[in-house]
Please model this.
Amino acid sequence: MISASSELSLRGRLARSVFWIAWSRGALQVLGFATTLIVARILVPADYGVMAIASVWTTSVGLLAEMGLGAAIIQFRDLGPREINT
Model:
């Protein structure tokens, strides 16, 4: 049985964790937006469009490359060169 003090401690820790995760993600969003504004002011519209297309493609390729890779590696007990290279 969990005592009332440890349950409050768990709830408090959970609340603090959620707060810091939300705060850090929000801060990263604001930082990314500010960076985008600065780059948009520096570049001419044609160059900014090229940069936007390049960032969409690199992000998409990165997501596709990472998709399921960690789970696939964890499932193997012993990794051989064939699995690592795949």
Q: What stands out?
A: Residues 4-42 form the longest helix (39 residues). Residues 1-42 form one domain. The helical segments are 4-42, 45-66, 69-75, 81-85.
